[in-house]
């Protein structure tokens, strides 16, 4: 049954729009060179692109942060990564592990370029990491706020993109760097250098000096800026017990995963993105595996993004266990009102048929569907099945459901007793301007009304039947009524005996209907009654006869 006595109030669209996010590939996809330092006598790039050439640096078996490393003697050792390699990088990242003791002079970790056109990543004589870019003058030049010359392993990551540059030490961004030129918002990387034939060295500067006395391991170059989450991942991957190298294939049980469910029907959402502190991860199979390890103690901000669902941001999430977003396309609120009086009714619960939700005030839904609040009984009120069409994605509708304490049960049939399934009942409350319309295609309406009011009910069934009506007052718990509807352009005839006015039965009565244009219709009955609906609006002469009875005739005009 459809009860259409409700109103919709459309409230403003509430989708959270996330701006400033730039999607990137995976850490593996965007690593253009990775040196594990695990092969003696050669320095292969794990991506098979930029193999290095060893000049004096010695293989230190088993002494790396992961497996082995290469040792640089501070006098003449270095490794060349190939002339002009990486010269197309306008943005990117350098990640590596370094172990060194007290510094006596500037010692270069990595350098690229020549003359007045160079990039340098080095330790000064006090043990502070420094980075500068020089192209006819300093573009940026800064010193870290933390020393690392303590004969322990430290993880260093320098990143730069269109928004600026960052330095991370042991997984944490150094926000207290001291700039002598530029700032953290200054951009520029290796492609800024305009010369060709540029040196590209690990362990010494671009001009052949500044050699470092240190162990260096796990050197990675990315063609984009690594996210804070990725930096944490790389740092965690170098800790004891968590070996992690390119091609970055962590045990899935140790990786932080994100899933999402639709609150409407508890189904998994397959396609979505999640912004984790500025880096966007994507999935098309419902499970997003990040490059964060579950034993990380850091807190992250997560933003769920899908244009077909309400976007959600959660803050300070500990990734020691996986996270599930519960979202929806829209929702609607239900307010229960008493019919006629419009008084608010509290404590009414509803069943949302399509989603198996049971609640009193709020339901989560998909957009643009017909939602049914199912029949039920709550205390002294009858709750009718109410259909609504939900709004668009992100909308919040308010549905007013009008309730009554008594039932008016309506069925309908034809004059010969055949049920009529499709009909509409309009109920008007006398002495008021209030009226309510109810429709059905199942042959029955159970209309909730209030007792002790005078009502007028008018029933219609398309254009095939004449309307009918009744006036009534609800005194008891319910009133049952079956309307008999007469079809349009029909004739109902009863044949009576002139002797005693009894209905003539048991004999065949034949009747010919002749229109004024000569059309002939022939009907017969043995029940004494005749109900015919095949007649067009004309003036008719009925000629009838039956065995044992005299012949007769009758003239009438049938109108629409």
Describe what this molecule looks like in 3D.
The chain is mainly β. Among the domains are: 31-236, Jelly Rolls (Sandwich); 406-485, Immunoglobulins (Immunoglobulin-like, Sandwich); 491-557, Immunoglobulin-like (Sandwich), CATH 2.60.40. Helices cover 2% and strands 48% of the residues. It contains 1 helix and 48 strands. Strands 3, 5, 6, 8, 13, 14, 15 and 18 form an 8-stranded antiparallel sheet that branches. The chain has an 8-stranded antiparallel sheet with strand order 4-7-17-9-10-11-12-16, with no helix packed on it. A hairpin with a 7-residue loop joins strand 40 (454-460) and strand 41. The longest helix has 9 residues, at 228-236. It is rod-shaped. The relative contact order is 0.10.
Give structural attributes:
560 residues; mainly beta; Jelly Rolls; Immunoglobulin-like; eight-stranded antiparallel sheet; 2% helix; 48% strand; rod-shaped; disordered N terminus
């Amino acid at each position: 049954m459809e009860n259409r006595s409700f109103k919709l109030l459309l409230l403003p669209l509430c989708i959270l729009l996330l701006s400033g996010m730039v999607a990137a590939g995976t850490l593996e996809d965007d690593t253009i060179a990775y040196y594990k330092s695990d092969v003696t006598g050669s320095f292969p790039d794990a991506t098979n692109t930029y193999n290095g050439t060893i000049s004096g640096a010695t293989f230190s078996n088993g002494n790396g942060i992961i497996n082995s490393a290469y040792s640089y003697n501070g006098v003449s050792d270095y490794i060349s990564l190939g002339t002009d390699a990486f010269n197309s990088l306008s943005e990117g990242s350098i990640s590596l592990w370094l172990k060194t003791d007290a510094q006596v002079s500037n010692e270069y970790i990595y350098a690229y370029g020549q003359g007045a056109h160079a990039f340098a990543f080095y330790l000064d004589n006090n043990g502070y990491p420094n980075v500068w870019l020089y192209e006819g003058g300093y573009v940026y030049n800064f010193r870290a706020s933390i020393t690392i010359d303590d004969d322990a392993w430290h993880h260093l990551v320098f990143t730069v993109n269109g928004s600026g540059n960052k330095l991370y030490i042991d997984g944490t961004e150094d926000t207290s760097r001291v700039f002598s030129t530029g700032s953290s918002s200054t951009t520029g990387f290796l492609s800024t250098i305009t010369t060709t034939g540029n040196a590209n060295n690990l362990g010494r500067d671009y001009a052949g000096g500044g050699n470092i006395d240190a162990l260096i391991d796990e050197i990675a170059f990315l063609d984009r800026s690594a996210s804070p989450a990725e930096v944490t991942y790389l740092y965690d991957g170098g800790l004891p017990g968590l070996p992690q190298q390119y091609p970055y294939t962590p045990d899935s049980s140790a990786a932080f995963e994100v899933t999402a469910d639709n609150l409407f029907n508890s189904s998994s959402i397959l396609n979505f993105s999640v912004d984790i502190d500025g880096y966007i991860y994507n999935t098309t199979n419902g499970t997003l595996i990040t490059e964060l390890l579950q034993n990380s103690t850091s807190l992250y901000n997560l933003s769920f993004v899908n244009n077909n669902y309400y976007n959600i941001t959660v803050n300070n999430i500990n990734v020691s266990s996986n996270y599930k977003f519960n979202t929806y396309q829209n929702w609607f609120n239900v307010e229960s009102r008493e019919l006629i009086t419009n008084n608010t009714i509290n404590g009414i619960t509803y069943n949302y048929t399509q989603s198996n939700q049971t609640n009193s005030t709020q339901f989560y839904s998909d957009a643009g569907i017909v939602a049914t609040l199912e029949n039920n009984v709550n205390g002294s009120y009858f709750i009718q099945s109410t259909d609504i069409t939900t709004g668009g994605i992100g909308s919040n509708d308010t549905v007013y459901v009008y309730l009554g304490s008594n039932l008016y049960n309506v069925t309908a049939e034809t004059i010969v007793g055949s049920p009529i399934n499709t009909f509409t009942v309009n109920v008007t409350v006398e002495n008021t301007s209030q009226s309510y319309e109810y429709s059905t295609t199942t042959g029955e309406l159970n209309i909730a009304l209030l007792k002790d009011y005078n009502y007028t009910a008018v029933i219609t069934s398309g254009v095939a039947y004449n309307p009918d009506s009744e006036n009534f007052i609800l005194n008891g718990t319910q009133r049952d009524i079956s309307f008999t509807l007469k079809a349009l352009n029909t004739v109902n005839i009863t044949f009576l005996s002139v002797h005693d006015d009894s209905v003539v039965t048991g004999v065949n009565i034949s009747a010919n209907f002749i229109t004024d244009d000569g059309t002939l219709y022939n009907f017969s009955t043995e029940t004494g009654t005749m109900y015919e609906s095949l007649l067009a609006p004309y003036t008719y002469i009925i000629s009838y006869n039956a065995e044992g009875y005299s012949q007769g005739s009758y003239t009438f005009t049938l109108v629409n």
